[in-house]
Amino acid sequence: MKALIIDDELKARNLLRILVEENCKRITQVFEAENLMNGVELIKKEEPEIVFLDIEMPNHSGLEILEFINKEDYNFEIVFTTAYNEYAIQAIQLSALDYILKPVSAGKVKAAVDKVVEFLGKSKINQRLEELKQTFKSNTFRKIGLPVNDGISFVSFDDIILMEAEGMYTHIHTIDEKLLISKPLKYFVEMLQNIDLFFRPHRSFLINLKYIKKYVKSDGGYIMMDNDKSVSLSKDKVEEFMQLMQGI
Fold first, then answer.
1. CA distance 153 to 149
2. Is a pLDDT exceeding 50 seen at residue 213?
3. Are 170 and 181 in contact (CB under 8 A)?
């Protein structure tokens, strides 16, 4: 098998090459490209069976690959190698594309290659890449991946009532259950900062605006949610909160 690594970072390419050569004996040749266009030319010339593709690169994102090559003319599978935030990783997962989250490791590389070997030529990579591109463009991905004991639980934004900080953990209240996730609240605030449903009324809370039951002015002001959980409202957030409520 031939493999191609497309990544603008030399160190990243070198590390991945070493891991592939040492752990993936099925791969006999490894080619490298420092940008998408050079990678496209190598795909046409060398016809690799597996392409390790970085998403964020100067000039052209890895997601644009099908704009420059007709996948039907070449028999290869794509494994994203990315340092993207986990919100994007979840979208990739749901689109059934494999990925290796940087920093890469021998185990991750071997598992990805084994999967490619099993499914090579059987998947609908064109359709899945197009769906993924549209997901990023339209911001229609409406679930969040929560790390739980036996894997990742995907929860709809609409089902989350609020999130509450507890040190390096976060209590997530949904319409069905309460989860304790081993991530700080800041992690979720950054992940959901572009989702209009959510508002941070206090450093310890992130709430879903659709589940607000009542605003209480007494005791310094607080918000009552539909699950009867009271949420603190910082003084410097009162004006922003009122403006948001007027817009709903």
1. 9
2. yes
3. yes
The average pLDDT across 139-147 equals 70
Strand partners, 164: 171, 205
Q: Using alpha carbons, select from 90, 196, 207 the residue that is nearest to residue 153.
A: 90
Scanning the structure block, which residue is given the tokens 């266009």?
A: 37
Residue with tokens 């050569």: 21
Domains of the chain: 2-138 (3.40.50.2300), 143-247 (2.40.50.1020)
Per-residue model confidence (pLDDT) at position 233? 94
What is the spatial distance between Cα 37 and Cα 129, in angstroms, rounded to a whole number? Answer: 17
**Which of the four pLDDT bands, split at 50, 70 and 90, describes residue 230?**
very high
Are 62 and 36 a contacting pair, CB within 8 Å? Answer: yes
What's the pLDDT at 153? 76
Residue-wise pLDDT tens digits, 157-170: 999 999 999 998 99
Q: What share of the chain is helix, strand, coil (3-state, %, to 5)?
A: 40, 30, 30
**DSSP per-residue string spanning 39-94:** HHHHHHHH--SEEEEES--SSS-GGGGGGTS-GGGS--EEEEEE---HHHHHHHHH
The pLDDT of residue 95: 44
